[in-house]
Amino acid sequence: MTKKKIVGLFAGFMLLLGLAACGDEEKSDGGAAEDGVRTVTVGGLYDITGGTGDVGTPYAEGEQAFFKHLEATGGFEGIEIKQIGEDYAYAIPEAQKIYQALRDKNKASAILGWGTGDTEALRQQVANDKLPYVSASYSENLKDLKESPYNFLVAASYSDQGRAILKWIKDNHEGGEPTVALLYNDTAFGRSPIEDIKDYAAEIGIDVVDEQVIDVQATEAQSQLLNMEKKNPDYAIIQQTWGATATILRDAKTLNIDTQFIGLNWASGEGVIDIVGEDIADGYMAILSHAFPYEDFPGIADIKEYLDKEGKTLDDIDQKFIQGWSASKIVAAGIEAASKLTDGEITGEQIRAGLESLSDYDMGGLGANVSFSADNHAGTEQTRLGVVKNGRWEQLTDYFSYKE
Fold it and tell me: Which of 54, 75, 282, 310 has its CA 20 to 30 A from that of 256?
């Protein structure tokens, strides 16, 4: 077991202890305290112990760390932000239960969510309750403001990521018309971009020759890969998290399959390399939606400052931590903007308006800059591609849109 894995397991255990403590906090009054400081509670839905806990744990740590750092560095004048969350173990009924508690007991004014299934299941409640919801799901469905008026996407949608990959393939493939297979799990998350990817492939002249469904927690995928191999695709696009992605790469190596595998954002990150080793991971490509700790971007400085105070270093975190930190950063920017719209209680409606006021919001390189408006809650179509070389992810492209 690698050092990073051991650190990750310990961090997950400590995070669960922290979540248990959070559940006992007194509910927020949601308004102005006696000293004139206005309190805003941000709720959190985490997957620590469920099917996507491999990436969900560091993401939740990053979300929480941002608010801890914000408080330690003075926060926003006249505003106290409380962040309270709980592990729902990737179970939609549990997510609904926790959401209702965050709304009713804790008086949350905004929510940091997680999965596609629960985010889509909750979007009507979120709209009725007028609570801005920033999820770790980048489902294309959440772009529909009629269905999702309080949901905000803070990175390129899964569909836009898939389109970007296809655009890159079309522009860079040599030797005839490229062929593509799709590997995904049978969840709302796994299925989310598949039809859009197929539609865009047909639009630009790429043939999708095969689809294989592989469980999100799969430890074996040889049968699916052997079926895929019969179609001999040049490329295979993966919509999974670390565990199943590692299974695919390992078994493809065992079977001597020479297809170029390219993952969407949850199929990228250090965890894939940690599981399969750098020899198997070498040459694997994926969407890099957010920065890695070792990249030289201005936004890393705040994270380093936080880690220094915690007695940690950048080696103790990964890209998914930065992804969670980035989501919290955007929610906090919306709260700060909302605070300027009123002298009284900062409500969910005002936070929505605050988020909608963000234009080309500077992420300091942690992710693509985002812009929202009353007519558009999809913050960006920009994403980038990377490749594993010598045990480390390297940027292959700058941020770009498939429309460019």
Answer: 54
Length of the chain: 404
Per DSSP bridges, beta strands 392-395 and 385-389 are: antiparallel
Task: Note the CATH architecture for domain 3-156+296-356.
Answer: 3-Layer(aba) Sandwich (3.40)
pLDDT along the chain (404 residues), means of 10: 46 50 44 73 98 98 98 95 97 98 98 97 97 98 97 98 98 95 98 98 98 98 98 98 98 98 98 98 98 98 98 98 98 97 94 98 98 98 98 97 96
* CA within 13 Å, CB half, 117: 19
The pLDDT value recorded for residue 9 is 47
3-state secondary structure of 147: coil
pTM of the model: 0.92
- CA dist 230 and 225 (Å) reads 9
Task: Give dist(CA 214, CA 238) in Å, integer.
Answer: 10
CB atoms within 10 A of CB 295: 18
The whole-number pLDDT of residue 21 equals: 44
Picking from 126, 133, 268, 136, the residue whose alpha carbon sits closest to that of residue 189 is 136
Instruction: Provide the residue type at 295 as one letter.
Output: E
Q: Would you state the torsion angle of the CA atoms of residues 46, 48, 51, 52, taken in this order, to the nearest 10 degrees? A: 70
Structure token digits, residue 93: 């009924």
Q: Which fold has domain 158-288+384-395?
A: Rossmann fold (3.40.50)
Q: Give the pLDDT of residue 36.
A: 81
Alpha-carbon distances, residue 265 vs 54, 107, 151 (angstroms): 14, 32, 20
Would you say the CATH fold of 158-288+384-395 matches that of 3-156+296-356? yes
